[in-house]
Amino acid sequence: MRVEVEDLVLRYGDVTALDRLSFTLEGEKIHGLLGRNGSGKTSLLSVLAAFRRQSAGTVRIGGRPVFENGAVTRDVSLIRDAGETVDLGTAEDALYFAEWLRPRWDAGYARSLMDLFGLRPKMSVKAMSKGQRSAMGVVVGLAGRAPLTMFDESYLGMDAPSRRAFYDALLADYLAHPRTIIMSTHLIQEFGPLFEDVLIIDQGRLVAHEDSETLLSRGTEVIGPAAHVEAFTTGLTVLDQRRLGPTSSAMVYGELDEAQRAKAAAAGLELGPVGMQELFIHLTGGSR
Ligand SMILES: Nc1ncnc2c1ncn2[C@@H]1O[C@H](COP(=O)(O)OP(=O)(O)OP(=O)(O)O)[C@@H](O)[C@H]1O
Description:
GO terms for molecular function: ATP binding; ATP hydrolysis activity. By secondary structure, this protein is an alpha/beta fold.
């Protein structure tokens, strides 16, 4: 599902939550949406799902405007952090309601996901714990198979085994039924390996949009004798530096060319990868 966002602005009174965002998502991929608290992730997903109308700019999904357009919103699903179910009735009622709203609903798959997360059909939705509500949301999001499916920190309250189950189920179902998935998360180390493409926003603006491989290739860890590390990294963007006795390690940002790699090898330096989380911290300005 093609998602085109152009000069998107969303204001809440005096607060500009999205500030002229532009990007295009193409093909069926799992996209990671990363940003610090208050950076505008929920605001962006809410506009894509037509829960909110933008203040300015355009949003097209599958080439069509999304707001108040039932033909498009049927194909779009946003699961927010506390799940996406009404507080009335039982889990079974919630599934019935979800099926009614979602044309690609797979009832058998929904039942098997309920089992996976230990949810019983007769459970009252109101009495569910935070993690159970999130799991219920994940069931609705996955079994709905919407061509554009978005999860906004949908795992909140879920324990580590349940999050792992969500990760595995999402990946398996995406491979069996490719679709466009956007997932916002603060758990970058945990969910980062799922992302083929990453969008990073900060204060309502886009600071990076790249495939994960390219993004990761911009960071390198340089390890070796302190004086050699220092000489090698002079003039480079150093994100972080640590020293342990005579050895030092520096994290540098920016792709290294062949000549630089050869120079590092000649100086006895080891070059290694940097994690997505470190790059994210750098791109969004470190501590404020
Ligand atoms: N209903 C609202 N009314 C007024 N301001 C709002 C409203 N919702 C969000 N904001 C503001 O808009 C900005 C973006 O908020 P948003 O919830 O989109 O961020 P987020 O990236 O999802 O944050 P988090 O990671 O903390 O969930 C923030 O400054 C927030 O205070």
